[in-house]
Design brief:
mainly beta, eight-stranded mixed β-sheet, 50% strand
């Protein structure tokens, strides 16, 4: 009798597969059919992910509810199944390998008595589309596909978005993100099941240029000499003698063809070992009439492939070889916005009357960003919960704005850090012993990120970093703010000691002194007695 029931169920499954291949099934019918089968060890749903090496497959629910963020926990617990590599696999009615199964396929799974997959059959259903986000709007997504073309896809507001298999807000998707979209095309209509951010891209760590020596196609490396780095709108020579080779990132597919010469412009990312790898390369002739700009974009035309700057009369073109980086991410030039701040290097090619951009860097998070820096004397401490200062001053431009009122700051032990004069402290020890201590507080959106006990600082200066030293940094092109005349005045180049409790901010985030690079422009607030740099903001 048990054999007859099993045979009947297998026949039902086979008929259901045939029906899916012949006619579309409504969501309600699909849900009813799959619920009957799942009760006796048969599972169906849209493939979200399959990993043949680790031996598992994850499905959206057969009724589509798996694509809802509310169902994500259930999806992780109940819709992931394990299998052995040797299981029978079918796709679109033909024998297939596990590697042939694609995200978006509709899968039918038969489980054995231990709950492992005994058989797997799929059919083409949703088609995965891979690309890089060019533009995201409330109702539309424009992707730059791997072949260099662009595709606009209507994305309704209820389509879920995932990062690392966790639901996120659509507002968190940014230009330069690498995504996979599951789409179903029926004539002119397109249905989107979900958007997955494949991985959070590493930031572009540097942009270099150099004379091309050779390309090693065996080791997949590009050799350059006379290397310069684009730092804060200027080309700075690296302290590298001779030839340096750069590996190509495996995710970047373009490679030199034939013999190459001239000047190479490359954007690189650092791998886990700290080695630079090329994520974009452009080959041009030696610059003849080069100019650099630090300005804001006034107008940009993706059709004419040119942009105008707010404070320059030059019209600057761009092409497929122009390296564009926005907030650390590699983007298309035409995805930059009007009034974005840019640092730009351009050259006028031989026979042309227009400058062509080699490199465009936009950093909309420069300076403090959304961080606020306060200073005050502690009046009350509620350990691991909050502390109150009797009055406070807020850093504003080149001065401190004083308020003669108490202010309370929340403490989150997992977020709030403590910096002592001799290094990192422990918020677990932040108690009544700190009452009457003057401290700096760095806050963002009501969250207390940092408390520092560094000494009072009131001397403002600016400069360009020449190098990092054993005790701090060396500055050139220094200017110091005169509090009486309220103007910036030229000052001697200097070496600045930076104590362990100093506050260092770059790209709107708290960081460490080691993240500052030669060529960075900094705004520093120093102690008038020791001249130590207490607050350092990379502009």
């Amino acid at each position: 009798m048990r054999y007859i029931k099993t045979t009947a169920v297998i026949i039902m499954l086979f008929c259901l597969i045939l029906s899916y291949q012949v006619v579309p099934v409504s969501a309600a019918g699909e849900a009813a059919s799959t619920s009957i089968l799942e009760g006796v060890g048969f599972i169906s749903g849209v493939v979200k992910e399959i990993n043949p090496s680790l031996g598992y497959i994850t499905l959206y629910h057969g009724d589509g509810s798996g694509v809802s963020p509310d169902a994500q926990d259930s999806l992780s617990r109940l819709r992931t199944f394990s299998f052995a590599y040797s299981i029978p696999v079918m796709r679109d009615g033909y024998q297939a390998a596990l590697e042939d199964i694609r995200p978006g396929d509709f899968a039918f799974i038969m489980l054995d008595q231990d709950g492992y997959i005994a058989r797997l059959s799929t059919r083409s259903y949703y088609e995965p589309v891979y690309g890089t986000v060019y533009m995201m709007s409330p109702a539309n997504l424009v992707l730059k596909l791997d072949d260099g073309t662009y595709r606009s896809i209507a994305v309704p507001a209820d389509v879920p978005v995932y990062r690392n298999d966790r639901p996120i807000s659509r507002s968190e998707v940014r230009e330069g993100d690498r995504v996979r979209i599951l789409v179903q095309i029926d004539g002119t209509s397109i249905h989107v099941a979900g958007i997955d951010l494949i991985k959070d891209p590493k930031p572009v760590s540097a942009i270099f240029r150099g004379n091309i020596e050779y390309y090693d196609d065996i080791n997949n490396r590009l050799a350059l000499s006379g290397i310069e780095e684009f730092v804060n709108g200027r080309w700075e020579y690296l302290p590298v003698m001779g030839i340096k080779t750069f590996a190509y990132n495996r995710d970047y597919k373009d490679r030199p063809s034939g013999r190459i010469s001239g000047m190479a412009y490359i954007a690189v990312q650092q791998d886990l070992l700290g080695e630079d790898s090329i994520v974009m390369a452009s080959f041009r002739s030696q610059p003849q009439y080069e100019m650099v700009f630090t300005d804001n974009i006034l107008a940009l035309s993706s059709t004419l492939k040119r942009l105008e700057l707010e404070n320059s009369s030059h019209m600057i073109g761009f092409d497929s070889g122009t390296i564009a980086v926005k907030d650390g991410r590699l983007v298309d030039v035409s995805s930059l916005d009007t009034m974005d701040p840019v640092q730009l290097s351009a050259d006028k090619p031989v026979g042309s009357n227009m400058l062509v951009g080699q490199v465009v860097v936009s950093n909309t998070r420069a300076g403090k960003g959304s961080l606020t820096i306060y200073r005050g004397r502690i009046k009350l401490v509620d350990p691991l919960k909050s502390f109150t200062v009797e009055s406070f001053a807020e850093l504003s431009g080149t001065g401190w704005s004083f308020s003669n009122t108490p202010k309370t700051f929340n403490i989150n032990p997992s977020v709030t850090r403590l910096l002592e004069n001799d290094g990192t402290g422990n918020m677990m020890n932040f108690d009544d012993s700190y009452i009457n201590q003057s401290v700096y507080i760095v806050e963002e959106g009501g969250k207390t990120l940092l408390v520092s006990t560094s000494p009072y600082a009131d001397v403002h200066s600016r400069g360009r970093v020449l190098s990092l030293t054993d005790s701090g940094l060396s500055l050139r092109e220094v200017m110091e703010y005169d509090n009486e005349s309220h103007i910036w005045e030229n000052a001697p180049n200097r070496d600045v000691a930076v104590p362990a409790g100093a506050i260092v901010i770059k790209d709107g985030s708290i960081t460490h002194l080691s993240s500052i690079r030669p060529g960075d422009n900094v705004h520093m607030v120093s102690n008038s007695a020791s001249h130590d740099g207490i607050i350092i903001i990379v502009e």
